[in-house]
Write a structure and sequence with these properties.
The complex is a heterodimer of chains A (about 240) and B (about 120). With about 240 residues, chain A is mostly helical. Chain A is built from 11 helices and no strands. Classes of the chains: A mainly alpha (about 240), B alpha+beta (about 120).
Chain lengths: ~240, ~120
């Protein structure tokens, strides 16, 4: 865990200077290690911690004192996890299934892009067609590389931009349908290149039928994603 | 002045719903502000553990008594604000009647002037 490996460094630094941002970052990592806290809960707790720190600072305490007091006020991460899951036992699982479905869809799309790009580039540069199995292995290796890249935290740093897509259910749905439609059009175009029998000549109808014939896995995932979308960005509540 | 004891755990748990609904009936608010308000109102006698407030808020939200929204505060930071719903206002009325009934019974027993409901 990144948080744990930073700890010794931070303790050494403490003797000279207290880094408030690093301390909050560590705290956040500790919280993230709690399996029972959904990301919205963690975000809410973090705003609370920051408010509490600011409150103590206003009363004249220094950064370090403010942080430790605020941290104590908010409570032990493990205890927080237990209390939160009691209040809403399904929330965490909704989020997990959401990301599993998102991962499946993302994997499918990435695989599609990579497989076609690989095949086209290889054919273009060498005039050589690889076996489908070989292509599959190359694509999988590339997906692994992308996954490793995402795991470095790049994805998390982009979250303000990416969050936009998850702000309303409509936006999420439109984005997914556009991605699927794009995939379908490309697929049909590529198929039409090697089309001898003229099956694909009636584009865009062929793209549409191709889309529908591949939709058996797409639509269930779409419904699941839109339904389970993390509740953090609900519609503007009606004020009573 | 005699020393006043802190509220027992049971009483804190039971009173959290009417307190939260009453605070939110007075306008939208967020976790940190709510805690400060309760501390201030009770003169420090009701000490809520900060992290425990959110499960209670989330439960009220799931029951449809309050609603929430992430909004940007003046400081530029986003906070999750809570609002009372119309169901919440109805629930608050019931809570109010019940708590005053308990309060007035105790007042009569202790010979303190009761309040009108």
């Amino acid at each position: 865990m990144a948080g744990r490996s930073q700890l010794p460094v931070q303790i050494m630094e403490n003797q000279t200077r207290f880094d408030l941002n690093a301390a909050v970052e560590n705290w956040r990592n500790e919280l993230a290690a709690q399996p029972n806290l959904a990301s919205d809960d963690r975000r809410e707790l973090e705003t609370h911690l920051r408010d509490a720190i600011a409150g103590f600072q206003q009363r004249g305490l220094n950064d370090e004192e403010s942080f430790w007091l605020a941290r104590r006020r908010v409570g032990q991460p493990q205890q927080l996890g237990e209390e939160f899951v009691k209040a809403n036992p399904t929330a965490v699982w909704r989020e997990r299934v959401f990301w599993m479905a998102a991962g499946t869809l993302g994997f499918g799309f990435l695989y599609f892009i990579l497989a076609y790009t690989n095949e086209t580039l290889l054919y273009f540069f060498s005039g050589y067609r690889l076996y489908e199995t070989t292509l599959l292995w190359i694509s999988m290796a590339q997906i692994l590389a992308v996954a490793a890249f995402l795991a470095t935290g790049w994805f998390a740093r982009q979250s303000p931009t990416l969050r936009w897509f998850f702000q309303t259910r409509l936006r999420l749905m439109v984005m997914l349908v556009l991605v699927a439609a794009f995939q379908s059009v490309i697929q049909t175009e590529v198929a039409a290149l090697g089309d001898i029998d003229g099956i694909y000549s009636n584009w865009p109808f062929s793209a549409w039928t191709n889309f529908l014939s591949n939709a058996h896995w797409f639509f269930p995932l779409l419904v699941l994603l839109v339904w389970l979308m993390p509740a953090q960005n609900q519609k503007t509540p009606k004020r009573a | 002045m005699y020393k006043t004891a802190m509220l027992t755990k049971d009483l804190v748990a039971a009173s959290s719903k009417p307190l939260l609904l009453s605070i939110l009936a007075g306008g939208e608010s967020y976790g940190y502000e709510i805690i400060q308000k309760v501390r201030e109102l009770s003169g420090g006698q009701i000490e809520w553990s900060d992290g425990m407030l959110y499960p209670v808020l989330h439960r009220l939200e799931r029951d449809g008594l309050i609603e929430s929204e992430w909004k940007e505060a003046d400081t530029g930071r986003e906070r999750k604000y809570y609002f009372i719903s119309s169901d919440g206002r109805r629930a608050l009325k019931t809570e109010r009647r019940q708590w005053l009934a308990v309060h007035n019974s105790l007042c009569k027993l202790w010979k303190i002037k009761p309040v009108s409901i």
